[in-house]
Amino acid sequence: MDEPGNPEYHSGYFKEESVGEIPLKGKTQPQHLYRLISDLPDMRTRFAVGLAKGVTDLVGRRPEMDALRSAYERVKNGEAQVVDVVGEAGVGKSRLVYEFQKGFGASETLLTGICVPYGRNINFLPVIDAVKASFGIVEGMSQEEVGNRIMERARNGLAPMVPFYRNLLSLKVDDPEFNILDPEGRKFGTFEAVKDLFLAMGEEKPLVIFLEDVHWMDKISEEFFTYFSHCIHGHKILMISAYRPEVAPPWAQGAHYQRLGLETLSFDASARRICSIKGKRKKYGPA
Q: What is the pTM (predicted TM-score) of this model?
């Protein structure tokens, strides 16, 4: 049991501080009490938490991995691609994409938009993730720093779109023309601004956009990425989405689209995975 005052990472999602034990009605033993310090911004998904604890070797996914790599080769030749990775919860969708992008470096850009169970009513949630990463905005930056990052990127032909970026990231907008727009005008302008930002990044070097847990995506983001998927022809852009089989996003069509269905691992692949787990436990000690 942790000593009082010793910060710990509870379940991998939050940073907490132990403040001692208290008696509770109906419990025979005192219960440990924690004070929440903060969430962990990089630990928003089960896969991220599991990754921080270490992962086993990837087995049984060579055809799907080859398909992703083949799609990326076409992207590098200027043929935009949209790939959906589809499978039940826990089958390894995020792990497959993680292994695919592990070798990425300075030659490509990776943006991630994360959808969460409570996010269906939060407009633009995964879009905001990707836009923040585009501008190099990280947790803890002041509004002034965020504004400066936007202006730095906007020098490259995106200056007219600055009011839409500021509004999307909850910054004050003083532009009179923006402020008279109705909600539909602001939505369409935001679509154009984000599209132009991503296309500009794809001109600099190949761009990979990964949308995680699309089955929880809000309707506005779904509308945007459907629109965006129709605008990427001729650009070095790969859009990857991961979701469960019950979902059928509107962008799932076209000559540049393919669907990768992840099934449960075969008996042989499962056996190899178990051996991998046992090997890691033997190397690092019991869990």
A: 0.76
